[in-house]
Amino acid sequence: MKPPLLLIGQGSHDDAYAAEFGRFVHRLRCRLDRTAVDVSGGYLERATPGLSDSVASLVARGHHRLVALPLSLSRTSDDLGAAMEREQQRHPTLMYDYGRPLGPDPRVLSLLAERLTEAAADLSKPRALEPAGARPRLRAVDTPVDEDLHVEPGETGIVLVGEGSTDPAANAEIHRVSRLFWETHAYDFMTVETAFVSVTPPGVPGGLERCRRLGARRVIVVPYLLFAGGMLERVWAQALAYGAGHPDLDIRCAEVIGDCEPLADVVIERYEEALQLVH
């Protein structure tokens, strides 16, 4: 029997993120059920089920070796290693192997390109907050758009937005992703600038301003994020605030990568890769 796959999320108080994380875990469970692989998901903090509960459940079902895969686009944090060491102390028979983070896999870059295309084709622009569910959430709201306005890709800038970190290497990785994305999927565009949601500059307004000064007539903000939630809302809110002061600049915001089959393909490949390294 193959070892189970444990998908590990950082954790968030945001219900939208938790719901999409849960749907993705279910997708993987359905995909790998064909090969009798158990799939579970747990969070490092701020959400349930916690990592400790998920590991305990797997051990209770008779699993003593697992593949732990951080469901993250960035580098693995030290918190994950410390958390898994604590689980090994709680369950002395437990052994685990890590799967590589998803990172700038070519299929992830292709998904970003799809979200870019969708945003470029959408004539609605994010210009207001409207209620969505239990609390206000930024949504793309229809606004008057000059349908005769023709903007070439060479007049369009892209701002790729990562989360931001206190780790310089993690921030440098986002810059690397921006360059890879430009050269592989967005070379016809004016530029691909890098921005961060928080912690480190430049923020989303800084990326937008950079594009404006380069002469862009349109800018598409592309979040380098897996799932919707509070982080995405902060990206959109920063873009909205900047756009309010620059009405002549056409700003559009793409969606996150989201729960989808191509992302599941990447995760399954990481899982199989981890198994091969064991043998």
UniProtKB/TrEMBL annotation:
Keywords: Lyase, Metal-binding. The keyword Metal-binding applies. GO terms for molecular function: lyase activity; metal ion binding. This is Sirohydrochlorin cobaltochelatase. It comes from Nonomuraea wenchangensis.
